[in-house]
Amino acid sequence: xxxxxxxxxxxxxxxxxxxxxxxxxxxxxxxxxxxxxxxxxxxxxxxxxxxxxxxxxxxxxxxxxxxxxxxxxxxxxxxxxxxxxxxxxxxxxxxxxxxxxxxxxxxxxxxxxxxxxxxxxxxxxxxxxxxxxxxxxxx
Length: 139
Known about the structure:
Elements: H1 11-16, E1 18-20, E2 32-39, E3 44-50, E4 55-60, E5 72-85, E6 89-93, E7 98-101, E8 107-122, E9 131-132
Antiparallel strand pairs: 1-2, 2-3, 3-8, 4-8, 4-9, 5-6, 5-7, 5-8
């Protein structure tokens, strides 16, 4: 999907793409493909690739080590994304649209029928500390 929209990747980047099924074994419906460009103590940039109808389940990025939790901005590159953010309701993103999710805020998102690519720009990412509403989920 990334190549189809002209996003050039190195061989190392292609090999580093994470395929996350969240331990549920239902990747086509509940999952996410993630390419991390950079994740330092201060900033993070990723591409989030979603298959048609694929959903990233509800979660939040809690405070860690005295920091308020990850703040992230989603920018839709291709396709469409239905984003739900606690306190903000439903937000539909189409190419060029973006939305910033405050730290420690419950949210979930799902691709439209054509799938989606979303660029994520955030503060430091600590995926292992994410808190999911569904207790069966493992990252």
